Amino acid sequence: MSTDQTRIDVEAPSEPAPMTFADLALGDAVLKALRDVGYETPSAIQAATIPTLLAGRDVVGLAQTGTGKTAAFALPIIDRLDLSQKSPQALVLAPTRELALQVCEAFEKYASHLKGVHVLPVYGGQGYGVQLSALRRGVHIVVGTPGRIIDHLDKGTLDLSELKYLVLDEADEMLKMGFAEDVETILAETPDTKQVALFSATMPATIRRMSQQYLNDPEEITVKATTKTSANIAQRYLVVPWQQKMDALTRILEVENFDGMIVFGRTKNITEEIAEKLRARGYSAAAINGDIAQPQREKTVNQLKSGKLDILVATDVAARGLDVDRISHVVNYDIPTDAESYVHRIGRTGRAGRTGDAISFVTPRERGLVRMIERATRHELTEMPLPSVDEVNVTRLARFDDRITAALAEAERIEGFRDIVAHYVRNHDVPEVDVAAALAVVAQGDERLLLEPDPEPPARPERRERGAGRFERDGGERGDRGERRPRPPREGFATYRIAVGRRQRVEPRQIVGALANEGGLRRDDFGAIQIRPDFSLVELPADLSPETLDRLSGTRISGQLIQLRLDTGAPGRRFDRSPDRGPGSKDRRPSRRFDDDRPARKPRHRSDRED
Fold this sequence. Notes:
Blueprint: E1 6-11, H1 28-36, H2 44-54, E2 59-62, H3 69-79, E3 90-93, H4 97-110, E4 119-122, H5 128-137, E5 141-144, H6 146-155, E6 165-168, H7 171-176, H8 180-188, E7 195-200, H9 205-214, E8 219-224, E9 233-239, H10 245-255, E10 260-264, H11 268-280, E11 285-288, H12 294-306, E12 311-314, E13 327-332, H13 339-346, E14 356-362, H14 367-377, E15 382-383, H15 389-408, H16 411-428, H17 432-444, E16 493-498, H18 508-519, E17 529-531, E18 536-541, H19 546-553, E19 556-557, E20 560-561, E21 565-566, H20 606-609
Parallel strand pairs: 1-8, 2-7, 2-8, 3-5, 3-6, 4-5, 6-7, 9-14, 9-15, 10-12, 10-13, 11-12, 13-14
Antiparallel strand pairs: 16-18, 16-21, 17-18, 19-20
Helix pairs in contact: 2-3, 3-4, 6-8
Domain DEAD-box RNA helicase Q: 19-47
GO cellular component, one term: ribosome
Protein name: ATP-dependent RNA helicase DeaD
């Protein structure tokens, strides 16, 4: 491959570029899909990359996450797909299953006006059956993590012989997670005639060498991101499951002192649904989206400006150019998947030197989007708790007090009702305070003034740790031979052994990245990690589900199966939940599984590929 590269440096503009997507020679079907999702002007990386890829040239794109690079490679691929070819034409490698799913969703969105386009996500943790069925039926685009792609190549279930396009998304992150060898193996097993696009936030020596070896005269495009958020905006996020978002939004509306608010939803249907539910809860809310006619949109915005409307529920495209002084809060009901959209959304508040608040709802599986936004905007988001019942009740009581105070200020009306209450007290012999309480019930109606306390979570049963009571206070246990053994895991955790260590040059970050990706674990699910010469010890939650353990059992680090098992302090067979065959059985090997029915693959050195 040629090592010469043409280099283009692009400053990301603060204002949208004057060109449109129609200027980039994309087909009508793709342009129609872009109009549906509200895309009008290409970002810097898109404007520079799309024409180059459409011309058939390889690309090295240096850009931060959140600059719009998914569309930069997805749109040219979709535009040139051959729908009659059933074997995969495009392969996108991503470091995590979350990113793989996001890229898949983007492809499906951009191909919405092309009939018969099949996109398949391939990642660890998902059953092979679904993936194999889809591959047998035929797919045009495969988006996957390197480990699972290698599994399919080893099994012969993924045919890349007719591959035309290969994308390495977030290449530097794949290297950090220990996928360098897998990526090079995949590259070596694809046709030399393919077109390659490599995207990375940085250009370490390994990626530079990889681009020189596997890319053909690539054009290097660098986007110097200037995506920033206003210092006047307090940025927070709330981790909440999808099913509880509306309840969370209602509590936030109760406790936050807001003037006007915009709630952003990802789709037109979501905006209508949110607005309808808010109105049912007594809030003045309205939706604007692509289906709303311009006169109605202007009327709604004017109502927001005048104070007749407090909450506007909008899609990105509908809120474009919206400037209303009284917007004090922006809520991302659906957190955006790119930093540019995030900056645009929260920029609706905190304008002209005023302060503002931005709150983003994040499902547990979307935590990575928070990190992406923080990296791209160079601003840390603060995690906030769900407002408690006590906080909501304090706010409700304060508002109730305000209503009473306002009513007491109307002396003439109070005087008339005072005589009516006195009449009732005389004739029914009821204390005045009880009459006041009864009138409050009448005014409140069927809705409860105060919320019931949240139910207490069930007590977690204590787990008796293996060997409990044998560890000494000095932090270790002495064995029969006097050797020091590891400290016991902290409460609620268990120690697992994996079959990679210093000899495989494994690092803690690779272990965390691989296990988190395959098992859906969070960073706080990891305890101490000890790397030994031939193996490593990792503290994980003691109550991992059988499904999670199943997914973890097929994990590979640096191309080697980790052979996860509970650590007993001595060599033993791989952790397996199959019934014990008993002491008299000669075969004590764990039952074979579909995802580990082959020997561990030995590392492939460069010399192995250069023959």
